[in-house]
Amino acid sequence: MDAAGFPWEPVSHSWEESFARFRAYKARFGHPRVPAKWPEDQALGSWVSGQRSLFHARKLTEERRRRLEELGFDWART
């Protein structure tokens, strides 16, 4: 973060925030299958879909893939 408290890498910071919400979803419901149109957090469903797209396009970093898989992420398109 810079002196004003802003992250140096906003895209990475945004990914971390979404990942934290994904982890919280799994802790709350006991599984990582976020509905695509989950009314409580529609952006999370879109983010999960986006991670699948990045994975299948081979554009997801190994670190992010590993972290998602540690939570049981399902790479199958739904």
Quote the average pLDDT. Answer: 88
Low-confidence stretches: 6-10
Dominant shape: globular
Total strand count, please? 0
Largest sheet: none
- The helix content, as a percent range, equals 55-70%
The separation of the N and C termini measures 36 Å
Secondary structure tally, helices: 3
Element order: H for helix, E for strand: HHH
Question: Which structural category do the helix and sheet elements fall into?
Answer: mainly alpha
Percent strand equals under 5%
Radius of gyration: 13 Å
Write the layout of secondary structure elements.
Layout: H1 10-29, H2 42-56, H3 62-70
In short, what is this structure?
The chain is mainly alpha-helical and 78 residues long. The protein is 56% helix and 0% strand.
What do you see in this structure?
- It is a single chain.
- Helices cover 56% and strands 0% of the residues.
- By secondary structure, the protein is mainly alpha-helical.
- The model is unreliable at 6-10 (pLDDT under 50).
Features:
78 residues; mainly alpha; 3 helices; 56% helix; 0% strand
